[in-house]
Amino acid sequence: MTLAITDLKVTIGGKDILRGVDLTLEPGRVHGLAGESGSGKTMTGLAVLGLLPHGSRVTGGIALEGRELLTLPPKELNKVRGGEVAMVFQDPATSLHPMLTVGRQLTEHMRHHLGLGRAEARDRAVELLRKVRIPGAEEAYRRYPHQFSGGMRQRIAIAVALACSPKVLIADEPTTALDVTVQAGVLRLLRGLCDELGLAVLLVTHDLGVMSAVADEVSVMKDGLVVETGPRSRVLREPDHPYTRTLLASLPDAEVS
Amino acid sequence: MEKGAAVTPPRPRRPALPPLARFLIRRVLMAILLAWGVTLVTFVLTNLVPGDPVAANLGQRAMNDPEIVAQWRAEHGLDKPLWEQYGLYLQGLVQGDLGDSQQSHRPVSQDLAEAVPATLELAGAAILISLVLGVAFGVIAALRRDRLSDHLLRLVSLIGISVPTFWLALVAFYVFFYRLQITPGSGRVDPALGAPPPVTGLHTVDALLAGQWDVFGSAAGHLITPALVLALYTIGLLTRFTRSAVLEVLGQDYVRAARAKGLPGRVILFRYVLRSALVPVITVAGLAFGSLLSGTVLVEAIFAWPGIGQYAYKSATTLDLPAVMGVGLVVGVVYLVINLIVDVLYGVIDPRVRLR
User: Fold this and answer.
1) What is the pLDDT of residues B290-312, one digit of tens each?
2) B9-45: pLDDT as tens digits
3) Looking at the domain assignment, is residue A254 inside a domain?
4) A69 lies in a domain?
5) Domain, as residue range, for A75
6) Can you tell me the ipTM of this complex?
7) Chain B partners of A181 at a C-beta cutoff of 8 Å?
8) Residue A99: closest CA among chain B residues belongs to which residue?
9) Interface residue ranges in chain B relative to chain A, Cβ cutoff 8 Å
C-alpha cells in the first residue's frame, strides 16, 4: 500500500511545525527521514496516525492507497491505527507498559482489530516473537517488559507493531535509545521484515549512518520542510542541497559508504 | 540487566515459590513484627503520661487513705515493676485479654468488640465513598483539564481539604437533621427498630444478612451523613492526587503507543492509564485512612456514634490505662493492616515491586 503525504502543514499554538511536507512511501521500501532535532521528522510520523498533541492544526493530505486519513472519523481512524499503519517508538523502555505482560500487549489489539480468540491470538503472538528473534518465545510471552534488555524490548515493540499485519510501519528513531552493539541487529530485522512482508517503512532518524545502512530513499528535513529527497546513494553521495552537505560534512569520515 | 545480551533469564533464588507469594510472606512477617512493636510503644507511652490513674479513678476521700490506694494499685497490678507489668500485659494479650476497664468494669476486649465495628463501619463507608468519588472526580478533572468541570472540581476538592471536619459535622447535623429533617439524628440505628443480630458488627451488613430491610434502611440512613462528612477531606485529597497522577500517565510514551495501536479510549483509560495512576493514589488512600480514623473522634462525638473515637476520648480523660492501651493497640493494628493491604496491592498491580 502506498502512503502519500502531500503539502502537510502543522501548526501548534501559532507556531509552524511543518510547512508543507511531501513524502511517498512505497511497499517493500524503506524511506529514511533525516534532519536535526526540531526539524519536524517526528511530527510527520505522528501526523500520519493522528497522534499530534492537543491543539494542533493540520492541513494538507495523507492518503493511504487513495484514502484520506486526515478527515477520517475517529472510529475509522482507530481501525487504521495499528491495523494498517503501525508505529515503533524511540525508547522501548517507556513505550511498553511496565505493568502488563508482553503477551497482553501483543494480543490486545489483535483481538480488537482482527477479532481473534484468546488462543489464536496467543499462537500468533508467540510466532511473532519468534519472527523478531526473541529466544524462548513461549516463555517471553508471559514475562514483563522490565525482564528484557533494551534491544529485546525494541524487538518486542516491533512485534507489537506488526501484530495486525499493517501495511505501513513508522519507526521513530527506533535505534537511538539502544546500544551501538544492538542497533545493527534491530536495523537488520526492520530491513528483513520490510522485504519479507512488503511493508512500506518510514524510518525517522537523525543518524545518517543508520540511514545509509538500510534506507532505499532518503529525505532530508529542515525547519518543517523536506529540502531534498531521492535514492539513498544519490542523496548521500551527491547532495544537491547545501543543508544536506552540511549534515554529511558533520559526520566522521568513514561512516557513509 | 546487561544490554545486548541475547536473553536475561530471571535468577531464581528459591524457585519453589512464585515472586508474588514470596513478597506476600515477607510482608506478613514484617507486619507481625511491627504489631509487637506497637504493643511495646503503646505500653511505654501510656505509662509515661504524667497523670496518676489513682487520682483519676478514686475519690478525694479514698485518695487520702493510703491503704485504699495501695489496695487499688495492687488490684490493677500497678505496684509491680514496669517490665513485669509489660510481661503480664503481653501474657494476657496472647490470650485475648486486654485487662479490665477501670471505668466500665468490663473487659476492655468486650468494650472494643462493640466500639471497633461501629468505627470500622463509619470509616469503611467513608473511605469507600472517598475512593469512588475521589478517583472518579480526579479522572474527570484530568481528562477535562482546564475546562469548566476541572475548575469546579478543583473548587470542590479545595473546600474538602480546607473545611475542618468538626465544623462540617456540626453544620451537617444542624442543616440536614434539625432544619431540613431529611436525615435521622444521632446513633447508629433507630432505637425503635433495634440493632440487627450481630454477625460482623457492621449494622448495615448484619441487617442485610438477616434480611431486615427496614433496619438496613435505618442503619444506612444514620450512616450516610457522618460518613460523607468524614469523607469530604479524603475526597478532596484523592481528587487532587488522582488528577495529577492521571495527567502524568497520560503524557507517558506507552499511552501514546497504546493510541498508535488503535485501542478504544476506554481500554486505554482503564488498562493503561488507571493501572499506573492508581499506584500513587493507593499510597495516599492508605495514609488518608489514618487521618480519617483520627477524624472519627470528632465526628463520633457530634453524631453520638458509639465507636472507638468516643471510647478513646472517655478512656483518655479518665486515665483508664487498660482501655487507652487497648485503643492504641487497635488503632496501631488497623494501621498495620492498611499498610499491608497497600503493600500487597502494589505487588499485585506492579510486577516490578515483587522483585525487590
Assistant:
1) 888 888 888 898 888 999 999 99
2) 555 555 567 777 888 888 889 888 998 898 888 888 8
3) no
4) yes
5) 3-249
6) 0.88
7) 3-4
8) B350
9) 1-10, 252-254, 256-264, 267, 271-272, 275-276, 349-352
User: Within 10 A of A19 (CB to CB), how many other CB atoms are there?
Assistant: 15
Matching residue, cell 553521495: A237
CA dist A217 and A201 (Å) reads 10
Any idea what DSSP says for residue B198? Answer: P
CB within 8 Å: A78 and B8: no
- Residue A129 sits at φ, ψ, to 5 deg, of -60, -35
Is there a domain that residue A215 lies in? Answer: yes
Residue A160 is assigned to a structural domain of this protein: yes
| Chain B CB within 8 Å of residue A176 CB | no
The tens digit of pLDDT for each residue in A140-187 reads: 999 999 999 999 999 999 999 999 999 999 999 998 888 888 888 889
Q: Tell me the three-class secondary structure of B294-352, residue by residue.
A: HHHHHHHHHHCCCCHHHHHHHHHHCCCHHHHHHHHHHHHHHHHHHHHHHHHHHHHHCHH
Residue contact B262–A157, C-beta within 8 A: no
Q: Which of B4, B8, B272 sits opposite A97 (nearest CB)?
A: B272
**Which helix (H) or strand (E) segment is B199 a member of?**
none
Specify the 3-state DSSP secondary structure of B218: helix
d(C-alpha B75, C-alpha B89), whole Å: 14
pLDDT tens profile B196-240: 888 888 888 888 888 888 889 899 989 999 999 999 999 999 999
The answer, for A80 touching chain B at a CB cutoff of 8 Å, is yes
Domain count, chain A: 1
CATH code of the domain in which A236 resides: 3.40.50.300
The H or E element that residue B274 is part of is none
The residue with greater pLDDT, B44 or A255, is: B44
As a whole number of angstroms, the distance between CA B229 and CA B234 comes to 10
Which of these, B74, B296, B260, lies nearest to B169 by C-alpha position? B296
What is the distance, to the nearest Å, from the Cα of residue B278 to the centroid of all Cα atoms in its chain?
A: 19
Phi-psi region of A68 (alpha: psi -120 to 50; beta: other; left: phi over 0): beta
Which residues, other chains included, contact B4 with Cβ-Cβ below 8 Å and sequence gap of 6+?
A149, A150, A151, A179, A181, A182
Q: Please give the interface size between A and B, counted as residue pairs whose CB atoms are below 8 Å apart.
A: 108
